[in-house]
Write a structure and sequence with these properties.
Shape of chain B: globular
Distance between the termini of chain A: 27 Å
Number of helices of chain A: 7
Oligomer: heterodimer
Radius of gyration of chain A: 19 Å
Number of helices of chain B: 13
Number of strands of chain A: 11
Structural class of chain A: alpha/beta
Distance between the termini of chain B: 27 Å
Strand order of the largest sheet of chain A: 6-7-8-3-9-10
Number of domains of chain A: 2
Order of helices and strands of chain B: HHHEEHHHHHHHHHH
Bound molecules: adenosine-5'-diphosphate, magnesium ion
Strand content of chain A: 25-35%
CATH class of the domain at 102-293 in chain B: Mainly Alpha
Shape of chain A: globular
């Protein structure tokens, strides 16, 4: 087990009204070494919040978020994130963007050599000196992946990384992520709202639901890659997951959220939700 | 597998290839295309028409004032011939136009340099610390509300008559936009930029120098530009509290007593020309360079 959430609740408190929004309610999950874990669920159910907790960008309101046996206190290069939105610095070249994230304590040349290696891995070495605005959306996300790899993180956190790409490009990117994951023995937590994407990638699929955010069900997928989405087993699993998604309270219409009163607008109020 | 994807980026590649071809053939790929040249020409004509309109309006008002009030009012021909003589070295208000201009520029440069240093440091501090922003911006907005002329008595009470008072007035009018834009620019940097730096294990200094400052560069330049214009525009007010009557603003102020209005108009024209030159050449150029460095321009 490389990371875990132990009875984690996350409440976002609005400083003006004092109202709290329960984004996660008593969520527990384990991420095993080498897992390709897909988090799936309707928008607003707390997928990004879960990922941000694992990354260390957010701290839990109650419960513990653990990484390699230690409680997570903040972001760390041990956990690389590929963000949903484009996250490259437009004022740096592709190479500089990747080299920026290489852990410190090495010379500039070494950092750039390492960055170059990662760019080769994602097929973008020809674009090392281009600016991000010269790249297509798919290429930008590939650079973001190269950057996460360059960090040499053991855990890759990917938040709907290909959500804004067209279907065809997304499939291609999915395959590449799979190739990198198989080749490098990383652990991946991959957020998506697409059942197909989860089915094509994951060794485990976790279904989340909202109001308040929690984990509903889990499926283990042993089918080897490349997976055939039209095989009977896959079709059946897809049906089952779709049904699970529909049962969830906010799958249709606007996402609803649970509100609570928070006593004493403390940073980390002790509370039962 | 990755290669196929590049077809999508054909448009971008063509541009790059064109640039490379131009380099191989030994010409600059920044060379003006015919459309660009036509655009620049049309632009120049428009600017010329705009300037002509101002001069015509001035002339009409001048002749009307002379006819209606029977008073003296410098006309464009009178003013431009006086400007020509002044540029030739004729003294106005006891000194050459070059001396007046240099005195004004030195004062203003000093006040503005102080505003830059104080404003950028304060802006960066406010931009990164929430509480400091909430408290610190209150005085900044108050200072911003005080009109340039209103600083005259305040400056006189603090510094008496002289250079320090002048520099102080320029400082106080140039400062607020610099602080506001620097702090605002840093606060408005997308949070994801900070997250990337933090997950990469960067310390706060790198986060600041390599991420927040570049991310806020355009608003910061804008603040500097507004501050510069503010300081320049308050020149007359600032030079009113000067003991010695040198400087462009001082000469304009002096025309109230000497009735040498032609000289005042000459100084107004010089002030406009210098302001426009700095604004259009220096700052537009600087902004272009920074936009390019920031990767905001299509031409890479
Ligand atoms: N920083 C925040 N402040 C306040 N509310 C937030 C914040 N981040 C997320 N939320 C809320 O928490 C809920 C879950 O959000 P999120 O984790 O982004 O969902 P998902 O990624 O599954 O779409 C949503 O209702 C969202 O509005
Ligand atoms: Mg999300």
């Amino acid at each position: 087990m490389i990371a875990s959430l132990e009875n984690v609740s996350k409440v976002f408190t609005n400083p003006r009204t004092g109202k709290g929004l329960v984004a996660l309610n008593d969520v527990s999950m384990d991420v095993g070494e080498g897992d390709f874990l897909c988090l799936i669920g309707p928008s607003g159910c707390g997928k990004s919040t879960t990922l941000n907790l694992l990354a260390g960008f957010e701290l839990p309101t109650s419960g513990r978020v653990m990484f390699k046996g230690k409680e997570i206190a903040g972001p760390s290069p041990e956990r690389g994130v590929v963000f949903q939105e484009f996250s490259l610095y437009p004022w740096m070249t592709v190479m500089q963007n990747v080299a920026f994230s290489v852990s410190k304590g090495r010379t500039k040349e070494e950092r750039e050599a390492l960055a170059m290696k990662q760019l080769e891995l994602v097929g973008l070495s020809d674009f090392a000196h281009a600016r991000p605005n010269e790249l297509s959306g798919g290429m930008k996300q590939r650079v973001a992946i190269a950057r996460a790899l360059a960090m040499d993180a053991d855990l890759l956190l990917m938040d709907e990384p290909f959500g804004s790409l067209d279907e065809q490009t997304r499939r291609k990117m999915d395959n590449e992520v799979l190739r990198l994951w198989e080749g490098q023995g990383k652990t991946v937590v991959f957020v998506t709202h697409s059942i197909e994407e989860a089915l094509m990638l994951g060794t485990r699929i976790l279904l989340m639901s909202a109001s308040p955010g929690r984990i509903d069900r889990e499926w283990k997928v042993d089918t080897p890659w490349p997976r055939d989405p039209t095989s009977p087993g896959m079709v059946a699993l897809k049906k089952e997951i779709s049904r699970g998604l529909q049962v969830c309270s906010c799958a249709s219409g606007e996402p609803k959220a649970a509100f609570v009163e928070v006593q004493g607008a403390d940073d980390r109020p002790e509370m039962e939700v | 597998m990755w290669k196929a994807d590049r077809v999508d980026d054909k448009g971008k590649m063509d541009k790059k290839e064109a640039a490379e071809k131009a380099l191989r053939e030994g010409r600059s790929h920044f060379e003006f295309r015919p459309e660009t040249r036509r655009f620049l020409l049309a632009n120049a004509v428009n600017i010329a028409i705009g300037i002509a309109l101002v001069i015509i309006a001035w002339w009409v008002v001048a002749e009307a004032m002379i006819a209606v009030r029977g008073a003296f009012f410098p006309t464009p021909p009178e003013t431009f011939s006086a400007l020509w003589e002044a540029l030739g070295g004729a003294k106005i208000n006891g000194a050459t136009i070059y001396f007046h201009t240099r005195s004004s520029l030195v004062r203003w440069g000093l006040g503005y340099a102080l505003a830059l240093v104080i404003g950028t440091i304060a802006g960066m501090a406010f931009g990164t610390m929430g509480r400091a922003y909430d408290i610190g911006m209150v005085p900044v907005y108050i200072v911003q509300m005080i009109p340039g002329m209103a600083w005259v008595p305040i400056a006189m009470l603090i510094f008496g008559l002289g250079e320090s008072a002048t520099v102080f007035i320029i400082l106080m009018t140039a400062l607020p936009p610099i602080v506001i834009n620097t702090a605002g620019g840093i606060r408005q940097a997308p949070p994801i930029y900070s997250r990337v730096a933090l997950m990469s294990g960067k310390d706060h200094f790198s986060l600041f120098a390599k991420v927040l400052i570049p991310a806020a560069a355009l608003p910061i330049i804008d603040g500097m530009r507004i501050g510069l214009a503010n300081g320049w525009r308050v020149l007359i007010a600032a030079e009113m509290v000067l003991g010695t009557m040198v400087g462009l603003g001082a000469t304009i102020e002096d025309s109230r007593y000497s009735l040498d209005f032609v000289s005042a108009f000459v100084c107004i024209i010089v002030i406009c020309l210098i302001g426009l030159t700095i604004e259009k050449l220096l700052f537009s150029g600087l902004e272009g360079v920074v936009r390019n460095r920031l990767g905001l321009e299509e031409e890479g």
